[in-house]
UniProtKB/TrEMBL annotation:
Residues annotated as domain Metalloenzyme: 1-132
MF annotations from Gene Ontology: manganese ion binding; phosphoglycerate mutase activity
Lineage per the UniProt record: Eukaryota, Amoebozoa, Evosea, Archamoebae, Mastigamoebida
Origin species: Entamoeba nuttalli (strain P19) (Amoeba)
Domain of life (superkingdom): Eukaryota
Protein's UniProt name: 2,3-bisphosphoglycerate-independent phosphoglycerate mutase, putative
GO BP terms, alphabetized: glucose catabolic process
Length: 145
């Protein structure tokens, strides 16, 4: 897997300031999670942690916004209740982290969103880019004040 190489390239692209929005998928924890090998899972997570740290530093330099989430779990549950390898995706909730280095208090997390989930993330991205999401989208996880 090429997380470090992907991260290097992403930082190059961020430094170019050619794009307003970039999205990346670090697949290491997911792919390694399918093996059931805990030691490899730890290595995959640590690799992605280092990549996220580097990305966060670059986004901070540019006073940008970094969102981190996942579409499902996997590596966080590598053994079943009997101690056997669990190699499938999980249905565990995933977090959404927003690091906005130019935040001026213009929005807050919208606590009124019922059953927030992955379907709400796209509207959130769109709002953070300064646009209103289409009416047929699930609601954003932020509201402007």
């Amino acid at each position: 897997m090429k997380a470090k190489e992907v991260c290097d390239r992403l930082i190059e692209v961020l430094e170019s300031k050619e794009y307003k929005y970039l999205r990346v998928n670090f697949a290491n924890p997911d792919m390694v999670g399918h093996t059931g090998n805990i030691q490899s899972g730890v290595k995959a997570v640590l690799t992605c942690d280092e990549c996220l740290k580097r990305l966060d530093e670059e986004v901070r330099k540019q006073k940008g916004i970094l969102l981190v989430t996942a579409d499902h779990g996997n590596v966080e549950t590598m053994l079943d209740k009997l101690g056997k390898p669990m190699t499938s995706h999980t249905c565990n909730p995933v977090n959404l982290f927003i690091r906005d280095y130019d935040y001026k208090g213009e929005y807050v997390i919208d606590e009124s969103v019922e059953h927030p989930g992955l379907a709400n993330v796209t509207a959130t991205y769109i709002n953070l880019l300064g646009f209103e999401q289409p009416s047929f989208y699930k609601p954003s996880l932020i509201k402007f004040i």
